[in-house]
Amino acid sequence: MATNAAVKAVLLLSGGMDSAITGAAARARGRRLVSLSLHYGQRHARELKAARWQARALGVERHIELKLPLGPIASGALVDGGAIRQSGVKAGKPATYVSFRNGVFLAAAASLAESVGAGEVWGGWCFTDQAGYPDCTPGFFRAFERAVRAGTWAGREGRAFKIVAPLGRLGKAASVRLGLRLGVDYRHTWTCYQPSSQGPCGRCDACRLRAQGFAEARLKDPLE
Amino acid sequence: MATNAAVKAVLLLSGGMDSAITGAAARARGRRLVSLSLHYGQRHARELKAARWQARALGVERHIELKLPLGPIASGALVDGGAIRQSGVKAGKPATYVSFRNGVFLAAAASLAESVGAGEVWGGWCFTDQAGYPDCTPGFFRAFERAVRAGTWAGREGRAFKIVAPLGRLGKAASVRLGLRLGVDYRHTWTCYQPSSQGPCGRCDACRLRAQGFAEARLKDPLE
Question: What global pTM score does this model have?
Answer without folding.
Answer: 0.89
